[in-house]
């Protein structure tokens, strides 16, 4: 399953069930930056990945160089 957020237009997130009850959420932006988290609560993982991506974007916007 692929997920996109309006406030993160350059990011795409995917959710996979790697084994019964264990999920992997991956995020990737157009600059090649990646996030990956594993756990049992898929909604929590998606939220954490989204928050982390927002922090990356915020930090990169305040600096002249990419993270």
Explain what you see.
The chain has 67 residues and is of the alpha+beta class. It has one domain (2-61). The chain contains 1 helix and 4 strands, in the order E-E-E-E-H. A 4-stranded antiparallel β-sheet has the order 1-2-3-4, covered by helices on one side. The chain is elongated, with a radius of gyration of 12 Å. The mean pLDDT is 92.
List keywords for this structure.
67 residues, alpha+beta, 4-stranded antiparallel β-sheet, 1 helix, 4 strands, elongated
Strand content: 35-45%
Query: What is the β-strand count?
Result: 4
Largest sheet: 4 strands, antiparallel
Helix share, percent: 25-40%
> Structural class from helices and strands?
alpha+beta
Number of H- or I-type helical stretches: 1
Low-confidence stretches: none
Please give the structural blueprint.
Layout: E1 2-5, E2 8-19, E3 22-29, E4 34-39, H1 42-61
Antiparallel strand pairs: 1-2, 2-3, 3-4
What would you say about this model in short?
This protein has one helix at about 40-60, and strands spanning about 1-5, 10-20, 20-30, 35-40.
